[in-house]
Amino acid sequence: MMYQRLLTKSLTRNRSFCILGAHGVGKTVLIKDFAGKFSNSIHLDLNTTVDRAIFNFDSSPEETLKAISFLKGKELRGSGTIVILDEICKCPSAIRWAAGFLNEQSNGQPDRLTEAKTGRPLVVATSSVMTKELSTLINRENGKMNPYYLYPFSFEEFLMIMDDPASLEAFIEVPVPYYAYEKLLRYFHLYTLIGGMPEVTSEYAVNHHLTSLKNIYRKTEDRFVNCLQDVTAGTKSRDLAAEVLQNIYPYTATRIRFNHFGNLDKGSREIGQAFGSLERIFFLHLLLPVTTTTWPVMPDTSKFPRLQLLDTGLVNYFSGIQKQLYQSHDMNALFKGQVARQVVGQEILAAESPAAWDETPLNFWIRNKAQSTAEVDFVLKYNDLLIPVTVKSGEPGRLRSLHQFMDIAPHTFAVRLSAGKLAVQQTQTIRGKKYHLLNLPYFLAGKIREHLGGFRKYVEG
User: Fold this and answer.
1) DSSP state of 301
2) Residue 356 — pLDDT band, cuts 50, 70, 90?
3) Of 24, 34, 111, 388, most Cβ neighbours within 10 A?
4) pLDDT tens across 368-389, in order?
5) Does residue 289 share a domain with residue 180?
6) Among 170, 134, 189, which residue's Cα sits nearest to residue 20?
7) Which of 356, 390, 408 is the last residue of a domain?
8) d(CA 68, CA 98)
9) Domain for residue 410, yes or no?
């Protein structure tokens, strides 16, 4: 099964980088595919004691590089060689070596020379865990490696796996041709049902049977639980984080409070630490609310966040809702729209965040007024505007929270994602302000930006 991850287009031979992402999203496969551009690659699996031991000696960065070459039986061919530090988080001494090697290579000035110009090997890495030491290596201001985040398969990548070139071509076309709508909608419901974890998707592409996926979902969760030992301080905190993980699925795409989360007998501090651990293994995002309708936004950390989990397939399986979703024709009608918000958030994040995990460009909006329940699902920066995105069905007149956003927004553009077809309509808020609503089928959640350009041109004439 041949495919190439979309993130590969962002990678370059001119600068070291680290691929971050949850266990099982395909980091090693991607980086080995990228390594095919080089005449020689040296792969170190830092999950293994043997490869970690290479960095145990107190040697100069250059001597350690020679040791890597000797012990792995691979010659060094200057800039034609790529050195892959797979799961670098498992070996702090490898992190320190990479920092020292890259610093020595550029004389302490990361932007002065690219790796290609120095004629030395390109050093790259992957990590399924974010540690404090690793964060210094990939710091965007003064780190030695560019950080990139890899999500599960996006819907576009899912279509590649399904091996249906006509549907993929129609999906990429802007606007999507009318005749492809029904088929793409069915594909998107299937994608939402099984999720985008590569092992799950690849298995389904071969056997086309849901029952064959059960063991993969369970093994995937077990691996996340095992990862927690790398980000927790002891057995008690690890066990609590694992308990939170195993009880978290029904709360996806909802606002949460830490105190006694999931009916656990624990306070805000302990639960907050558990969520922090789950963030560091890339299992979830905590999306923060904003109250402004203009850019720049200032997320309000004092208000309850909304939970965004890694993968919709895991949510559906462990929540026990696969059957209901399989029979549904409109995800917005299920579970107060939770499934639709989860998959839309997943698609937007995959499209918006090729860079670092901790620089999430995704927030939601709430009205800054006591006792108000007004909430818009997502807000996206587009040029100089903050665009509201709501995930709901029904007539525009029923979108009360969106109306409240638009009443105070300095523009007249909004987006609604649903099972309906692509359309542009002029409508008005309850208070009478006229605005333009771009209706997109929710399978285009990852393509909002491409459609916003045409939408704005169409409205402005």
Assistant:
1) T
2) very low
3) 388
4) 887 778 999 999 999 989 999 9
5) yes
6) 134
7) 356
8) 12
9) yes
